[in-house]
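Practice problem. Given the sequence and the SMILES for zinc ion, write out the predicted structure.
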Amino acid sequence: MHGTPALSTGSVTLRNARVPGAALGRVGSGAVETVDIAIVDGRIAAIRPAGPAPVAGPSHDLDQGLVLPCLVDIHTHLDKGHIWPRKANPDGTWLGALLAVQSDRERRWAAEDVERRFDFALRCAYAHGTAAIRTHLDSAPPQHEISWALFETMRERWAGRIELQAVSIVGPDTLVSPAELDAVARQVKASGGLLGGSVAVFERSKEAMLAVVEKAGELGLDLDLHTDETGDPAAHALLHLAEAVLETGFTGKVMAGHCCVLTVQDERTVRATIDKVVEAGIAIVSLPMCNLYLQDRQGHGGTVRTPIRRGVTLLNEFKAAGAVVAIASDNTRDPFYAYGDLDGVEVFREGARILHFDHPQDAAWDWLRALTSAPAAHAGLAYRAVIAVAPPPISSCSAPGTGPNSIPARRPTASSCVPAGRSTRRCRTIANSTT
Ligand SMILES: [Zn+2]
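Answer key:
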């Protein structure tokens, strides 16, 4: 969009804006509506069906340009991001990533180093129009003290621009170590975070999940766990998590990320797991770009072969069963994902292709909620990520053509993010890239 008007002060009506019904708070809508949006001092004062009648005051014709809420990136790793130039993944595998990050963390993750990369990641996300981020923080002692203190500083520094939440991530051995888990959980509690961890194939998986759920219950914390990020059908961490939630009567919020293993398990196991997840009220977040990079990859030690699985979990099935579902960035330019830029529109576009939510086309736009209102509501964010009369920041993109395939098919050739309360500025990274 060229010549975007200033939105933070004065009045202006954005005419002929195309807005997905899902962005207007209509759950289950795949429609895209053409509306006029009246903005007064950076706040939405009215939303009306677009029409030929003149409007009072200044107006700006978006010419069917797409308007979206600023996005919510509910699963990231801002403390890991951007170490790739100094610590690459040696073979592109999940284990290669784990060992590379561990080595880098133990040598280099002083507060100044984490802060520099964390801040750069936030500036990337902000430029792409993201308004809220949840980041996992590597919290194996003694890193927990360094990273959580820094997180508190960054949350304060970025308040009003990006709303931040943080989750501890530790390996399964820490979850079954009562003293270590307690130390991490108390740090999380003191910093206002969520409790988490990563469990895939682990003999004591059931015990680990019970321990983390009980600890969260004891301290009144919400949960967000990495579960079953593997193609080994022996992994059952998500099922164990759901069982632990139900057995303990845990009442906090629970999110589970990855859950890749469901694509290689038998139908009976899959059905039982999905049913338990829905019964336990667990929200599922899929990380399509990271899964595509790591899952089903064979290291250089073996014969190089073409992957035959995408790695993503059964997100369509979870949604159909009634679970809250989200998609998110995960890692950016670190050994777990070599690419990425905290670009929510890229996540949405790639998610549509990888997870096949582009069909049926008349329902595709409902998936916008997976990067906006669904994770915002689950996470209890102040930012609700819907376009409504009152406060939300909005991001407007010129998108000539807003059919159900427009985001998967193309990036806007020129655009501006115009969040309420922010100064109007070009989003160069969006404007300059086309695919
Ligand atoms: Zn992750």
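Check your answer against the key. The chain has 14 helices and 16 strands.
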